Amino acid sequence: MEETQARKRVLFVPVPAQGHISSMMQFAKTLHLNGLLITVAQTKFNYLSPSGDLTDFEFVTIPESLQESAFENLRPILCLLKLNKECQVSFRDCLG
């Protein structure tokens, strides 16, 4: 009898800010090489398009209705709090 082992999945949620996406994706690639499945949940504010070396990753978009102008005059923390509140229901649905 052959034993089937379920692969574990890691969910990455990039913050819509500069400077961390490439490091996060390098970490995701390392985890993937070690047998983990990778899902990237994103919004229109941090949209990543799967390139050649990310084709094994699953990309899901969390719908939100905020306009970019809603974030123009906010500090980074306030921006994240507003986005968090806006995406709470759709993120929960994504996890389901």
UniProtKB/TrEMBL annotation:
Record bears the keyword Transferase: yes
Could you give a GO molecular-function term held by this entry?
Answer: quercetin 7-O-glucosyltransferase activity
Kindly state which keywords UniProt assigns to this record, in alphabetical order: Glycosyltransferase, Transferase
What family does the database annotate?
A: Belongs to the UDP-glycosyltransferase family.
Instruction: Please identify the protein, giving its name as recorded.
Output: Uncharacterized protein
- The organism's superkingdom is given as Eukaryota
